[in-house]
């Protein structure tokens, strides 16, 4: 049975692979090599010609190069492997480097290919595979790569689709996945401040039994870890296989690593929009690890995904801050124009102004002036039961009812604050105001807004009325401002009385400069 691998997978293999691919249409042979083979054989291209392969074989096979002149047709071991012959040669050299070459067949993108695997002769994985005669070690490495590829693609799609509030959770899951994949005992993300002279630990995963340090690593300044900061800024990378070998200039870092029993550590910088924003790192605790190129590549990949997620989180935060500012600015605008932003009614500011104006007018024209204070009953429990948004809807419904009920010229309805409304009825005497208030309660009941906690099962209103009679300005000591203030206070006291008397009723009083008398009308 042949294994199936993708081009991308072969690219990531730590083993040098040269493989032959036949173009389906023309049956032309093409030979490719992966980056590990390029590094090993110092090749500067990913595709090789027959001449390249011959030249390579001549360099590697001493026997071949000696005999070349006399026996021109000696088999070329790389070509043999690429032709599908069983090859297992350990006598090859590349410069001073003893090489091991072995043939393997597998399929890439559904096409069978023959490959030559090339590794330094002491490469553990390769030797094990060669000695036991099976490729399970190499397959394991491929499976490992495949599993990590899968993990990365899952992580990136989860992070790309994450809502702002889920991003932290997904970053933590990504770190946990890396750790559980066996990369480290502790995986973490640190973020830089705007001036790049301070870092803080924002996310952390630790293996069971390993201590967490997120809480204490919150404000680490450049002067605390100068060598590390310089490394991150200049190289974007810090790879320490063995903390004990750190040089004297990294003494602060060594002290910190020792205090956490870190024996090996690797950190990779994260960038967003060309700007350094932080780093992602792995620690080995109480044991050492030689970080492979694959480990570093993997960490870089995860770092890139996390950096993108952090950047989109920043954008979302900035967006919601701008939205909040807009809403506040809008509310201030409403305030300035005298309008309540939720209901569209006049606001308290406009009401105070109108009350003063109307009081002067009624004194001047010897006309009565009635003021109604209207409050929604048990509105707190309405909010608690049906939610604040339904509460807002109910407030708007009541506002619309008031607006349509008090629509005579000169009548003014305002949202006094919260769930309380005030209505000015210029020219209305007490009995007219009471009658109008009574009708309002009937219309409110007809709306039929359910409120389980109310006695009637419906949302209702309580109304307190104070009426300034037409002759209230006769007293020369009475000023419009004082009378307006008293009218407001006495309407409020009447409302309080209506609440006390069971709600869903109207209580009224005639303006008394010194005392308040109530008539129960409903
Ligand atoms: N949904 C919503 N609720 C508001 C708004 N303004 C004030 N409220 C709520 O109105 C409720 C008023 O509660 P209380 O003053 O305790 O009075 P109540 O529950 O209506 O009781 P009584 O007045 O005694 O019948 C509070 O829960 C406020 O949160 C608003 O703009 N929207």
From TrEMBL:
Enzyme Commission number(s) of this protein: 2.7.7.65
Lineage top rank: taxon: Bacteria
Matches recorded under InterPro entries: Diguanylate_Cyclase (IPR050469), GAF (IPR003018), GAF-like_dom_sf (IPR029016), GGDEF_dom (IPR000160), Nucleotide_cyclase (IPR029787), Rev_trsase/Diguanyl_cyclase (IPR043128)
GO terms of biological process kind: cell adhesion involved in single-species biofilm formation; negative regulation of bacterial-type flagellum-dependent cell motility
GO molecular function: diguanylate cyclase activity
SUPFAM superfamilies linked: GAF domain-like, Nucleotide cyclase
Pfam families: GAF, GGDEF
Cofactors named for this entry: Mg(2+)
Residues annotated as domain GGDEF: 367-511
Matches recorded under CDD domains: GGDEF
Catalytic EC class: transferase
GO cellular component, one term: plasma membrane
Catalyzed chemical reaction(s): 2 GTP = 3',3'-c-di-GMP + 2 diphosphate
Name this polypeptide is given: diguanylate cyclase
């Amino acid at each position: 049975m042949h294994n199936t691998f993708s081009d991308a997978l072969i690219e990531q293999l730590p083993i040098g692979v040269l493989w032959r691919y036949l173009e389906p249409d023309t049956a032309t042979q093409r030979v490719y090599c992966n980056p590990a083979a390029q590094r090993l054989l110092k090749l500067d291209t990913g595709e090789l010609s027959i001449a390249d392969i011959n030249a390579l074989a001549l360099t590697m096979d001493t026997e071949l190069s000696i005999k070349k002149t006399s026996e021109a047709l000696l088999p070329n071991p790389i070509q043999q492997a690429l032709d599908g012959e069983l090859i297992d040669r350990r006598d090859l050299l590349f410069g001073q480097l003893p090489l091991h070459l072995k043939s393997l067949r597998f399929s890439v993108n559904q096409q069978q290919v023959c490959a030559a695997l090339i590794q330094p002769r002491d490469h553990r994985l390769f030797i094990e595979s060669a000695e036991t005669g099976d490729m399970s070690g190499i397959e394991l490495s491929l499976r490992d790569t495949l599993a990590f590829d899968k993990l990365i693609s899952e992580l990136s799609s989860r992070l790309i689709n994450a809502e702002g509030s889920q991003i932290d959770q997904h970053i933590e899951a990504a770190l946990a996945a890396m750790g559980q994949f066996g990369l480290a005992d502790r995986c973490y993300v640190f973020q830089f401040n705007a001036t790049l002279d301070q870092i803080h630990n924002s996310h952390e995963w630790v293996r069971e039994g390993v201590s967490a340090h997120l809480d204490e690593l919150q404000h680490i300044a450049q002067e605390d870890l100068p060598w590390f900061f310089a490394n991150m800024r200049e190289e974007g990378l810090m790879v320490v296989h063995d903390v004990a070998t750190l040089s004297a200039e990294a003494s602060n870092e060594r002290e910190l690593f020792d205090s956490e029993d870190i024996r090996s550590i690797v950190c990779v910088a994260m960038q967003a929009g060309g700007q350094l924003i932080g780093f992602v790192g792995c620690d080995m605790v109480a044991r050492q690890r030689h970080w492979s190129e694959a480990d570093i590549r993997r960490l870089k990949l995860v770092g890139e995904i996390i950096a993108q997620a952090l950047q989109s989180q920043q954008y979302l935060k900035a967006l919601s801050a701008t939205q909040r500012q807009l809403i506040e600015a809008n509310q201030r605008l409403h305030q300035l124009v005298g309008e309540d932003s939720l209901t569209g009614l006049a606001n308290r500011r406009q009401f105070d102004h109108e009350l003063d104006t109307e009081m002067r007018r009624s004194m001047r024209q010897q006309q009565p002036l009635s003021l109604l204070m209207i409050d929604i009953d048990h509105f707190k429990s309405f909010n608690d039961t049906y939610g604040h948004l339904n509460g807002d809807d109910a407030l708007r419904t009541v506002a619309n009812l008031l607006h349509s009920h008090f629509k005579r010229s000169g009548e003014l309805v305002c949202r006094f604050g919260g769930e309380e409304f005030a209505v000015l009825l210029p020219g209305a005497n007490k009995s007219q105001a009471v009658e109008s208030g009574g009708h309002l309660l009937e219309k409110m009941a007809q709306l039929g807004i359910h409120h389980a906690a109310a006695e009637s099962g419906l949302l209702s209103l309580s109304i307190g009325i104070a009426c300034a009679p037409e002759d209230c300005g006769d007293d020369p000591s009475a000023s419009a401002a004082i009378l307006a203030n008293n009218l407001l206070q006495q309407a409020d006291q009447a409302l309080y009385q209506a609440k006390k008397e069971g709600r869903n009723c109207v209580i009224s009083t005639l303006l008394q400069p010194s005392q308040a008398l109530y008539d129960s009308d409903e």
